[in-house]
Amino acid sequence: MNVKETATRISTLILFFCVLICSGTFDESPMVGDDTNHCSDDEKCSPDAKDKKPILIWWTKDLFPHDRTYKYHEITCKKGACVTSIDRALKNDPATRAFVFYGTDLRADDLPLPRKPWDEWALFHEESPKNNWMLTYEDALSHFISDLRDWTDSPAMPVEEKNRLQNEKGLAPIVYVQSDCYTPSDRETYMKELMKHISIDSYGRCLNNRKMPDEIDGFIKLHSPEYYKFLAQYKFNIAFENAICNDYMTEKLFRPFEVGAIPVVMGSPLVKDWMPNEKSAIFVNDFKHPKDLAEFIKYLDSNDTEYSEYMKYKDPKHITNKFLHKMLEERPWRVLGEWDKVNFGHRMYADFECHICDRVIERQEALRAHKSDPTKNPPPPPRMATKEHLECPEPTVSLETGKKVNKSLNYWEGLYEARAMKQMLLAGETNTTKFQSKYLKRLTDKYDKWVV
Ligand SMILES: *[C@@H]1O[C@H](CO)[C@@H](O)[C@H](O)[C@H]1NC(C)=O
Ligand SMILES: *[C@@H]1O[C@H](CO)[C@@H](O)[C@H](O)[C@H]1NC(C)=O
Ligand SMILES: *[C@@H]1O[C@H](CO)[C@@H](O)[C@H](O)[C@H]1NC(C)=O
Questions:
Q1: Per-residue pLDDT for 160 more than 80?
Q2: How far is Cα 340 from Cα 334, in angstroms, rounded to an integer?
Q3: How far is CA 292 from CA 286, 319, 396, 424, in A?
Q4: Ligand 2 neighbourhood includes 412 CB (under 6 angstroms)
Q5: Distance, CA 258 to ligand 2 centroid (Å)?
Q6: What ligand 2 atom has the least distance to the C-alpha of 406?
């Protein structure tokens, strides 16, 4: 593929990947005595579903990537076919093998219990652990997803115009808009220090020092073209994520690229892999102290030639990152089907669905092989997700100031809930609504004792 074709492709497909996490399957095997090799014997573990295709149930049904007027959908994946449905009544069907949950909506008092040893639980999530603290502890397998958007379709505001706005409207070089002021990444401590060294217009609830223009105030309007135009007036946009996780990159990062500004990035350790080229963003981690970052931004603010170097990504021929091109061309998460034409946004869910279907089929094949020749074919090991799959380390401070990490009540509640959920599963509980009274014991146990 030549450069021109690639560029055209980039400008039509466009960027971005985003928001992350999601995952494969996590399975625990509470009901089988032999806890290292659950389902080591096909007959003992999984019911005979004869020639039926494995069934996947979307326990969180809102994300079901198919037409809901049909009760079932057959999907064809790499390894074979599965049936997918939102019908919870299929829970006990002998062919049912997997349940899909959305991270934010995962609730321990609404699970498909009793959990059978052959039930695969698959977790999909696009938010940081902040949306469901339990997932900080709960096992979750990570799997990369993407969403594409066009960042080259609107040119950046010329730097001369940005300079004029700074002089005439008194705009700062940097804009910051944030309403969530207590985050696992502790971005607020860093921001507070940064603001001591360089002028920043902060319009959100956190460290606010400037009033948002009336015409773009309010959440809905934050996605409007007016809001993008508003951000485009600034040379630099703060792009600090609420949590630092490998696969967590959000609109905070790609919006500056769309509007034509330089993102000042605090976020995923892998973020540099995804940049359009080597001079398009500034990374907090490249500087020892916010003061040094401020000096560098001031320099770019004063040197229009150098600033314009950072704006070159707006021209597709300057998107030189080969990895990014490759990901855009391959887009391995992309699945096309009939429904896809009417349901574009759900493509990634369908890909996830096939990911699970393929793993289920692989497992069944391995079990069959084991059954036919146990000495030659070892049983497939259980696949249990670990903390590393989520790749979101525990919250830390963003800057050494003597301030302690804010492990909020929610954070500790998450730990407590995760432990209670595990106990519930190990006990082989059949009634999920007993979670609170029997396992979590919210009313009798105090969370406070966890808080340090
Ligand atoms: C401005 O940046 C350019 C490189 O883009 C450099 O050659 C030039 O020396 C810089 N000017 C100043 C005053 O630092
Ligand atoms: C810690 O975070 C919570 C929100 O999660 C907030 O309400 C609380 O005020 C914070 N505590 C401190 C000391 O900053
Ligand atoms: C499940 O437990 C709840 C109380 O937590 C109870 O009200 C309900 O009747 C139980 N359901 C069954 C089927 O036992």
A1: yes
A2: 10
A3: 9, 28, 21, 51
A4: no
A5: 33
A6: 1
204-218 b/e (C-beta count within 10 Å ≥ 16 → b): bebbbebebeeebee
Share of the chain above pLDDT 70, in %: 73
Ligand number nearest CA of 435 is: 3
Ligand 2 centroid to Cα of residue 406, in Å, is 6
Whole-prediction pTM: 0.73
Burial class (CB in 10 A: 0-12, 13-18, 19+), 447: middle
Query: Does ligand 2 have an atom closer than 6 angstroms to the CB of 182?
Result: yes
Burial 377-408 (b: 16+ CB within 10 A, else e): eebbebeebeeebbbbbebeebbeeeeeeebe
Mapping DSSP to helix (H, G, I), strand (E, B) and coil, where does residue 61 land? helix
Structure tokens at 58: 């979307």
Cβ 210 vs Cβ 201: under 8 Å: yes
**Alpha-carbon gap, residue 350 to 333, rounded angstroms:** 9
User: Three-state SS for 73?
Assistant: strand
Give the contacts of 92 (CB within 8 A, at least 6 positions apart).
none
Asked if the model's pLDDT at residue 240 lies above 90, the reply is yes
